[in-house]
């Protein structure tokens, strides 16, 4: 009996790459959370009257500053989501950092938009788990 081997036909496991559905989920979730943050940023920048909170009821900044903050965080999170889907390890580490940053930011933004902030904090916690649960060498499926 002979075994026929084709050049370059090694499986992902043989090359040391393990695929993970969690990372695919995390990449998709990072894209969704990033989009949510971009929407929150644009709303804060374009419509000052949308959030029904007085000046003294939000932590530290005014809505224009929060708008720029959420816009920047959202854009970075979308880039991170694309990096996670491409299997980049830096994107996994940055994804955890920016998920924590977004969760803390939404905690500060809780008075302005409570239901949206609680939902986004929950998504950030789920994103952190999805990024940290798979093995170190795994890639998105």
TrEMBL record:
One family name in Pfam for this protein: DUF7144
Q: Which UniProt keywords apply?
A: Membrane, Transmembrane, Transmembrane helix
List the transmembrane segments.
Answer: 21-46, 66-86, 93-109, 115-132
DUF7144 domain spans which residues? 22-134
This protein is called: DUF7144 domain-containing protein
